[in-house]
Amino acid sequence: MKDILTITTLLLMAYLLTVYCVRALKSCSTKEAAKICHGYIGRFCTELREALFPPEPAPCYPTIVGYDGNRIILSFVDEEFKIVRQNFAACFCTNTGISRDGHLVYYFFDIHRKPGSLPDDELLPLVTKQVEEALANTMRRYGCYMPPESLTLVELFPMRLCVAFARTGQGVESLNRRKAEIQQRKSLSHREPPAGMDEDWGE
């Protein structure tokens, strides 16, 4: 009990001395000096808690297709996306067409359509299923059997195929926002104009 009182007294004296020093250095009132000291103490306690009890790292999904454990290898990417690439007369990805951050990994393929290719509304679902299977194959190698649908986004443009895989929960949220934007855009493009909107309002 005596030791606790001694420590408490020393801490209180140190605090009062600190407040006095801050007051002298900042030329401010005791109240303002105490407020500054409280801020320093709060930050110190927060950093100490984070150092002693670091937060659990967010789970990272094994969704980097074509990865050799150190970097992404283009020949591995070609092999993993082989069935996808067969849908096009030409489909290739370069080093500059691959990017990743802590939450997403992107693959951009330059494409040339085959003569008589399927229309996009049929080709896109087919390619998406093939991309999901490529991702599932990669994840299985790491013992991960998550459904690939929520981790995958595929977008098809006239000359480009864009594939994104989520690596974390935050990445999944980003893909979901993008999917919602795409769906909203499709809904707006297919919406019939309201009756009477073709009237001549100048009459």
* Derived structural class: alpha+beta
Bin the helical content.
40-55%
Mean pLDDT: 83
User: Can you write the helix and strand succession as a string?
Assistant: HHHHEEEHEEH
Beta content comes to: 5-15%
Shape: elongated
Q: Spans with pLDDT under 50 lasting ≥5 residues?
A: 196-203
Number of strands: 5
| Rg estimate, integer Å | 29 Å
State the distance separating the first and last CA atoms. 94 Å
Q: What are the defining features of this structure?
A:
single chain, 203 residues, alpha+beta, 5-stranded antiparallel sheet, elongated, disordered C terminus
Provide a descriptive summary of the structure in words:
With 203 residues, this protein is of the alpha+beta class. 51% of the residues lie in helices and 13% in strands. Strands 1, 2, 3, 4 and 5 form a 5-stranded antiparallel sheet that branches. α1 (2-26) packs across α2. The longest helix is centred in the N-terminal third of the chain and has 25 residues, at 2-26. 17% of the residues are buried.
Brief account:
With 203 residues, this protein is of the alpha+beta class. It contains six helices and five strands.
Topology:
Layout: H1 2-26, H2 30-52, H3 74-80, H4 82-85, E1 90-92, E2 98-100, E3 104-112, H5 120-141, E4 152-156, E5 160-166, H6 169-190
Antiparallel strand pairs: 1-3, 2-3, 3-5, 4-5
Helix pairs in contact: 1-2
